[in-house]
Design a protein that fits this description.
The protein is α/β, with parallel strands linked by helices. The strands form ten sheets. Strands 21-24-25-26-29-28-27 form a seven-stranded mixed β-barrel. A four-stranded parallel sheet has the order 7-6-5-8. Strands 16-15-17-18 form a four-stranded parallel sheet, with helices on one face. The longest helix has 16 residues.
């Protein structure tokens, strides 16, 4: 609750939050209305601009029963994500209700709420109840704050208990919690849930259908069982599993093996990254303690991670370290390779660091489809590591289990995970903790004083940060030689008057993309490839490959970020397809300044082709399928396409934050009419596009697009212009939200005092 005093009266009102991160929705678990926006919008808010949105539809999600033994909050959230993504909740609120809510802890609720961007909703809201108050007490809120929250919620009908009637919703979905089973999600999207018992079967199907690899049905990898403690032997194959000769790899010290020089065999499905990464799950003590208990039980039996698995632990809070130390779980996790590497975004956003050289070389030489298993929110293509094509979301205890198994080509419900120090088969059930074990250890190791200690000095406790020198200046002192921060060119050529709307003529297609194109595809956040335009740019400035760092750390430099736009190593642009229809992976297109057709235009980096088009005065468009822009609320996915010269994106549907970000950058989002797609309209990507944009634009109006092929064939289709409000029309009229604010400030400055 927030309070203020007005004319001597104390006023109380519920808290709300608009944050600049996709994880903002975690606060919904506490009964706080909140969601994420892009940083572009936040910058405008800092300059006094309000946040505008259409009133959303609210979808009710009724929870019944309670989770069964063996199922975790991660399994629940993956199930919820699958259901809601299938139903369709983009730009909608989701409110959870029903008797099952009472059976969920506050961290469990926050875990579900935090995945709102993955299931597409603006937020996933939970009501205030006794569980909420218990969490406030645990996290060291004062008795007065707790009492005020309860009184206000009850007085204003915001309080929930089992005696309350169900709210009324336009649509209601239901889930029986007892039906939730251990699950993963992957290999490319968080909504693609796989029950653990079906994981091996689905892996083999995806290996063939998704990755185009041959699957041998009558062979099994026995290497995972060889050696004491689950260590590998010679990697021989026998009846019943993943097949293929694999690639022999000699381990160096980089893999931290028991014996340097040990030889193992990498195969399709080998897990090379297992990360308990700072995200949803590391704020949930139940699943974190469960991971520690799996490590403890495995260690007691002499088990260990496979030496080809790069392991890491990145808690979301130092409080996790506190209760790990208090429960003596730190040593168990570290024994299996899960040492704390930091307290922030790591593997989930591509900051896993390099794989051991011999592992990466083995993957490359054998063209292997290896896997990562991580406890984060997102497993989109190219996000976790460029060499790892199959990525799975899982609970922290399952992350530890897969590190021990070393492969996803295993049925953990039936097959032994490894052998103990006496050569006896060990199964997952032998090292999986019970719910009572987790709860008992949690009760004994977490207390309010830990939160008081860690958060009491949150602004002063980091000595290294506190020693960073700060210059006192009203203007930022730009350094021309900096490769990290540059003055962006967003306002170059800006006039005092708004440019307004006019038709777009003669545009060429920069990229023709499929469904589920994420902000990671559009603006990568991981490592910078040496041969990419961004890598070549940095090399040209004298930056060594070792000092490239990552796109995320160089996002203050538009020269790097624009070159990195649409440069994901896994993006597939149909414009760049060869004469056989094969689409290369990576940031390729065709340069239509050097040829009019797909056959005549040479293949080029997207950045290079875009710069040539800009120099020739040719506007650009992007054409895509469903769910364009899903994933992180990444500003550069909009800023980058704007700087490439993209004037419009035509898609079957958009994710909420990315559509807004495009509008805020002055890039027009257009939606195909129901039933229309690039494919059924016959678009190849070498057409010339004309968008009939009137001078007077109205919200969600229809506009006509004409695509003319090189042979002269004209195809007209209708799109909805996704400018949803008069305010968004004003932003676009000005060329973007920041231009709108600046012109507003200039006009205010002209007014007499």
């Amino acid at each position: 609750m927030l309070t203020r005093t007005v004319e001597g009266d104390r006023q109380v009102f519920p808290d709300s939050l608009v944050g600049t991160d996709s994880h903002t929705t975690m606060i919904n678990g506490l009964g706080v209305v909140g969601w994420g926006v892009g940083g572009i919008e936040a910058e405008a808010v800092m300059l006094g601009q309000p946040v505008y949105m259409l009133t959303p539809e609210v979808v009710g999600f009724k929870l019944k029963g309670k989770l069964p033994e063996g199922a975790t909050a991660t399994d629940l959230v993956l199930t919820v994500t699958q259901i809601l993504r299938k139903h369709g909740v983009v730009e909608k609120f989701v409110e959870f209700f029903g008797p099952g809510v009472a059976a969920l802890s506050l961290p469990d609720r926050a875990t579900i709420a935090n995945m709102a961007p993955e299931y597409g909703a603006t937020m996933g809201f939970f009501p205030i109840d006794e569980v909420t108050l218990g969490y406030l007490r645990l996290t060291n809120r004062t008795a007065e704050e707790v009492e005020l929250t309860e009184k206000y919620a009850k007085a204003n009908h915001l309080w929930w208990d089992s005696s309350k009637p169900d709210p009324e919703f336009a649509t209601v979905l239901e889930l029986e919690l007892a039906d939730v089973v251990p699950s993963l999600a992957g290999p490319k999207r968080p909504q693609d849930r796989i029950e653990l018992r079906n994981m091996q079967t689905q892996w083999r199907k995806d290996l063939a259908d998704t990755f185009g690899k041959k699957v041998a049905s009558e062979t099994v990898n026995t290497a995972r069982l060889a050696g004491e403690g689950g260590r590998t032997g010679n990697g021989e194959t026998g009846p019943g599993g993943n097949g293929g000769a694999g690639v022999a790899v000699t381990l160096t010290e980089a893999c931290h093996p028991e014996k340097v020089g040990e030889q193992i065999t990498l195969r399709h499905g080998s897990v090379v990254i297992a990360a308990i990464t700072s995200c949803t799950n590391t704020s949930n003590p139940d699943v974190m303690i469960a991971a520690g208990l799996v490590a403890r039980k495995a260690r007691a039996l002499g088990l260990n991670r496979k030496p080809w698995v790069k392991t890491s632990l990145a808690p979301g809070s130092k409080v996790v370290t506190e209760y790990y130390e208090k429960s003596n779980l730190t040593a168990d996790l570290e024994a299996l390779g899960f040492a704390t590497v930091g307290y922030g975004c790591t593997t989930c956003i591509g900051n896993s660091g390099p794989l051991p050289p011999e592992i990466e070389e083995g993957i490359k030489s054998g063209d292997l489809i290896c896997a990562s298993v991580l406890s984060g929110n997102r497993n989109f293509e190219g996000r976790v590591h460029p060499a790892v094509k199959a990525n799975y979301l899982a609970s922290p205890p399952l992350v530890v289990a897969y590190a021990i198994a070393g492969t996803v080509d295993i049925d953990l419900m039936k097959d032994p995970i490894a052998r103990d120090k006496n050569g006896k088969d060990v199964y997952l059930k032998d090292i999986w903790p019970t719910h009572q074990e987790v709860q008992s250890l949690r009760a004994a190791s977490i207390s309010p004083d830990q939160f008081a200690k860690r958060y009491g000095a949150v602004y002063t406790g980091n000595e290294t940060w506190n020693k960073v020198p700060v210059s006192q200046s009203e203007l930022y002192p730009w350094e021309e030689q900096s490769t990290y921060i540059q003055n962006p060119p967003f306002f170059e050529g800006m006039t005092e008057e708004a440019p307004g709307f006019a038709p777009i003529h003669g545009a060429r297609c920069l990229a023709l993309l499929g469904d589920s194109v994420t902000t990671d595809h559009i603006s990568p956040a991981g490592g910078i490839a040496e041969k990419s335009p961004a890598g070549q740019y940095l090399l040209g400035l004298g930056v060594s490959k070792a000092d490239f760092n990552a796109y995320g750390t160089r996002r203050g430099n538009d020269r790097v970020m624009t070159r990195g736009t649409l440069a994901n190593v896994r993006i597939r642009n149909r414009v760049a397809a060869d004469e056989k229809g094969e689409i290369p992976e990576g940031g390729w297109t065709r340069d239509f300044t050097k040829g009019d057709t797909l056959e005549k235009a040479p293949r080029a980096w997207i950045f290079d082709a875009a710069m040539n088009a800009k120099e020739a005065g040719i506007p650009l468009v992007i054409v895509a399928g469903k769910d364009y822009g899903m994933g992180s609320s990444r500003d550069w996915a909009a800023k980058g396409v704007f700087l490439l010269g993209v004037r419009a994106v035509i898609a079957e549907s958009f994710e909420r934050i990315h559509r807004s970000n495009l509008v805020f950058m002055g890039v027009l989002p257009l939606v195909f009419r129901e039933g229309d797609t690039a494919a059924n309209l016959g678009l190849r990507g070498d057409e010339v596009f004309d968008i009939q944009l009137p001078e007077n634009v109205e919200p969600r109006m229809d506009v006509t697009v004409r695509a003319t092929s090189p042979a002269g064939k004209s195809t007209e289709f209708t799109c909805m212009l996704r400018l949803d409000t008069p305010v968004e029309i004003e932003y676009s009229k000005n060329g973007g939200i920041l231009q709108t604010v600046i012109r507003k400030k200039l006009n205010e400055a002209k007014q007499p005092a």
